[in-house]
Amino acid sequence: MHLAYPAVLAALLFCTGLYGVLARRNAILVLMSVELMLNAVNLNLVAFDVWLRDALHAGQALTLFTIAIAAAEIGIGLAIVLMVYRNRGTSDVDRLRDTAEGHEPDPGEPDAPNGKPAPNNQSEVTA
What we know:
Blueprint: H1 4-23, H2 27-52, H3 58-88, H4 122-126
Helix pairs in contact: 1-2, 2-3
């Protein structure tokens, strides 16, 4: 088997996962995209291990460690997403910045108190 076939498939999987991480807003879909990227790396590790005919099978051993780390990552990630969803009612990644302490709304942001934009200079505060 040629090395190009699994390498191209891994590149397509990785690019699909990268697009999912950059374009998605739902945290669960972002975690699934990270898993796609890790699976692309695993495919490359196994393909190069077979192609190089490594006697120790280091690529396959490293793939097992990567799978274990990915399982732990998805478990912790899902627990965090579920807690955020319970507290906020949404799993939108863009709204997670609101969980930081001391976050004040930007001027012109619709979430400002009283429906008015927050003042941005001292003359508007005293007026």
